[in-house]
Amino acid sequence: xxxxxxxxxxxxxxxxxxxxxxxxxxxxxxxxxxxxxxxxxxxxxxxxxxxxxxxxxxxxxxxxxxxxxxxxxxxxxxxxxxxxxxxxxxxxxxxxxxxxxxxxxxxxxxxxxxxxxxxxxxxxxxxxxxxxxxxxxxxxxxxxxxxxxxxxxxxxxxxxx
Amino acid sequence: xxxxxxxxxxxxxxxxxxxxxxxxxxxxxxxxxxxxxxxxxxxxxxxxxxxxxxxxxxxxxxxxxxxxxxxxxxxxxxxxxxxxxxxxxxxxxxxxxxxxxxxxxxxxxxxxxxxxxxxxxxxxxxxxxxxxxxxxxxxxxxxxxxxxxxxxxxxxxxxxxxxxxxxxxxxxxxxxxxx
Lengths: 161, 179
What we know:
Chain A is mostly helical. Helices cover 70% and strands 0% of the residues of chain A. The radius of gyration of chain B is 21 Å and the shape is elongated. Classes of the chains: A mainly alpha, B alpha/beta.
């Protein structure tokens, strides 16, 4: 049973890739560099309808329209930057999986780093404090008590019992 | 001092993170802020839904405050909001233009006959090219546009009477005052 479902999933996993590619097969470029740019740009764009799929992977009608639009623009000679500008002007930064660095996205970019630094500082402080406690010298009273305890012969301790 | 700091600093960090997450609960991931707010309605020249031979352009809409409502017969939420639009149309407070998005002409006309027609006119965007320029990613969407053709607000999803009363109509009144 398990083997069967495993093999079945494997089968679908394998056939899924060529199917996905087949939907993009209609887009042919003479220039291989353009073809690569096209693949790259639609992989970097979010489908706004499904949101968790890229323009390359989505079968939503809007994604198909936008793929066609991007294809037409690239065949007409526009490059990747033109496409990105075109898309951001209409749909905002949201359309990009990789958000640009600007004041409104600073928390996004630096937030995790800041948290990491704070965590590291706390850890270093805690570790240092611990080692300091271990090295702490005994006070005079304590040292005296320790000395007397050590000087006491061990048998006298037994005798007290 | 540092004894309090030991508790207060992590507490403050926790509070900040919690505040962000809590805000996240309230936000609608479907509502993507439009980069077109404050910009002109993009140029277009499209046929009217009712008269295929008549072209309408963005310039024809200049000179008055209006709503631009993106709809289609294949869109379920458009049917849900249609009654609200019909009521708004009856109030005669603002013109509503329709952008009929990737639709069939016959189906769209039948829909208006059957459910009522709140639109001053319908722009027939068969290919969806103008919708792309408007950054439309789902129907219905409603734009508030001023007399100079500048977009002031966009609502994604069906409009409801509350939104019209509390947000859209006050905004229309203010834009009309400015002229």
